[in-house]
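quick one, 331 residues, struct below
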Amino acid sequence: MGSLHHEEADLVTKVCEIYHKISKLETLKPSTDVNTLFTELVTTCIPPSSINITTLPQTIQETRSKLIRLCGEAEGHLEAHFSTLLASYPNPLNHLDVFPYYSNYLKLSQLEFDILIQHYSTHDQPDVVVPKRVAFVGSGPLPLTSIVLASYHLKQASFHNYDIDHSANTMASRLISSDDDLSKRMFFHTMDIMEVTDGLKEYDVVFLAALVGMDIDEKVKVIKHLAKYMAPGAVLMLRSAHGARAFLYPVVNPEDLQGFEVLSIFHPQDEVINSVVIARKDPVAVDTDHNHHHQLGIGSILPSCCKYGDFQASNNPLNQMNIIEELAMEE
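---
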């Protein structure tokens, strides 16, 4: 770590210390010890940092990979715990704020909605500005993004939630069963998304959860599958991470999105941890197994609607967030 700045070296040391403590825990289910360590980890990784994860030594890269998996496992336990708790209420959706990170989901969903609508239109119907059918891949036992988007932002859209875990879908569907509106618009499919083919063509927008594909090789396989089967012109929304937050979640770069036109990448710098990546499936079907970059539109940016300034006028949380937008992509 000799090449790292003093602050970055301190950060890496601190993260590794927390990792070793987490890795010694008997269980990652919510408890005082688990909560304390993960809170310390998030607090360490949230401040803006110029650290470049890809330049770290191999041993640190391996620690990061293990840490992301532990974070994913802990997040699954946390969501299952609160989904069970919420299901004990007669109207679970009235009590979502018992989940400690609910306000983050409200902000992230608002951010994703604003970015989506800024870029959304179908090629055959340019005047259509709101998606009607949305898929969320990796929805889990507490599908807060789907619930918030369906409740506040996309009030006419149907949401198809995919998770490989049957028990997660059972818990999730229990939360919305008592809601007259959402129970008619929200569906749960217990399937590996890699086995969904023609069904993917039905969706205007596909959201890919941050922890579907916990390393970039796994994630790229999923992205290639989506590139093959999503409808031409459909929108893909992914979550990524930036700076020290990459110790918590996998990073998705533009070159990982072959078969898609990358429209924007946003890096919030507040308590919303995930970066947001929006991409559009190429209108012309391409063979994603070959690097035909001239066909893939990597770096082909929509000229006017990608600028941060376009968001300033509308009243949305982007005004309050310090967001960096990366538009310098290689041709």
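Residues 6-87 form one domain.
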